[in-house]
Amino acid sequence: MNRLVRAIALPSFALALWVTASEIEARLLDVASLRSEVTRLLQGAGLRNSDWGVLAVSLEHGDTLFALDPDRALAPASNQKLFTTAAALHYLGPDYRFPTFLLTDGKIQGGILEGDLVLYGTGDPAISDRLLDSPSIPWQAFASELRRLGIHTVTGSVVADASFFQGPSRSPSWSDRYLNDWYAAPVSALTFSENVATLHFRAGEPGAPAQVTVVPEGVEVPMFNSSVSVAAGSRSSLMLVRDDPDGPMELRGQIQAGSRVISRVITISDPAAVAVSVFRTVLRDEGITVRGSVDQIRSADTSPLTRSQVLAPAFQKSSPLRTLAVHYSPPLRELIQVLNKQSHNLYAELLLFTLGRVTRGDASFRGGTVALEEYLSAVVGLGGQHYNIEDGSGLSPLNRATPYAFVHLLRHVAAADYAESFWASLPEAGNRRELRRMYQTAAAGNLRAKTGTIRRVSALSGIVRSSEGERILFSILSNGLSSTAGAKRVEDAIGIELASFSRPSATSVGE
Fold first, then answer.
1. Domains of the chain: which residue ranges?
2. Which residues fall within 8 angstroms of residue 410, CB to CB, at 6 or more apart?
3. Closest residue by Cα to residue 221 from 198, 239, 244, 188
4. Per-residue pLDDT for 11 more than 80?
């Protein structure tokens, strides 16, 4: 009978276990084989020309299965969303819903609302056709409530109040190169259609400008159209130019008759203005006349609600406003599935601003990043050398995180009461609607991980079960890449190795 020995010199993640000497030997051989194979994969990736950090740890046994520079701080790209998701679940809870309020400062007399209508947003990312049939559905519900109250005329204006969030709507560290693209949409407490619009361009009569259609309907996009429609067979080249994402754009060039529709998704410079403009259009279509104009409250100091530091507007003696209707977003557990599976930057930044508001009373990039840093330090227990937070999405190239930080976070999440919601938000390998990689391997339907890609950066961090069902937490970060596609092939190969890993289970005393 093999003598019993006690494992006392394991890494910091280790759990003390009674195992036999032969089991230790077998286990070490299995781990050694895994380490050898992962090292071979990484050497094939050309480590000399790029920077890599890798860590894989057993959640059950606590031992380190593989480590390469786990304390190296690298740009994490969208793996940053793991920090934001976990912090949001911690502070808000999986059932949290973002409210959007319809308020008034007036009185209803004989079907006439004598006063303004106010749309007050708190950061709902889901007023769009991603989770709704139409982004206008909440506004239609508000119009239906006004009709139920007998209102057919509003004497005042329709006002957008997005002052719940403050500060720049884009991070100063985001590159100017992509500020017009959908994935860099501006942050607003009153978001509509994910703060983007789709422009469709069609040829008109020869000599006429190209025809432009904007989706969603009712969204106004400032544009100077200098394009020209030309006959079929002519040379055509259409360009959409906007030097400043908050400025007007110009449509230049030629479009050929009979050519296919050309589409372009662009960011909306003032989401709150778009939201309230579409709402007024909905009111008109529902037979409600608005005599006033469309207006907007931009400053917290001029908002009767935000300046009172309230989180949920309600009738108060100090405020003339009263609530007419409320629209609630889907619960956070559903929103984070969009955030992580679609790697949606706007969802992440809206959560970041909300964290700043809830924890510090500062709903801004600065408030949100400080809140996230405090979560990682005080709640997760990470030292500041393991992260640098610039935003909630990972779009900034100045974000930094170590593989250790992500594995430590995942271990913390695994013990939390919101773990199920967190894991369910991560893309599943081999799923054509989620992580479309590692098909027909041991990782397919098994590994769940967040991807990450920005210029010369790739990342993959998450959880996978070995062939024996052992849960393994891992993080793979790489920077300075000549090819992110090549790095992702290495990530996949490592994920498959971890999913195929096998070793004898520990035998406790008495078994």
1. 4-93+333-500, 99-169+270-330, 193-267
2. 82, 461, 462, 463, 473, 475
3. 198
4. no
Could you please state the CATH topology (level 3) that the domain comprising 4-93+333-500 is classified under: Beta-lactamase (3.40.710)
> For 203-210, which contacts have Cβ atoms below 8 Å and span 24 or more sequence positions?
203/229, 203/230, 203/255, 203/256, 203/257, 203/258, 203/259, 204/229, 205/229, 206/230, 206/231, 206/257, 209/251, 210/238, 210/251, 210/255
Neighbour tally for 233: CB within 10 Å: 9
Question: What pLDDT, on a 0 to 100 scale, did the predictor assign at position 220?
Answer: 83
Helix or strand holding residue 101 (H, E) = strand 99-104
Distance CA 279, CA 281 (A): 5
Specify the CATH number of the domain 99-169+270-330.
3.50.80.20
Over residues 374-419, the pLDDT tens digits come to 999 999 999 999 999 999 999 999 999 999 999 999 999 999 999 9
For 199-215, what is each residue's pLDDT tens digit? 999 999 999 999 999 99
Q: Is the pLDDT of residue 273 over 60?
A: yes
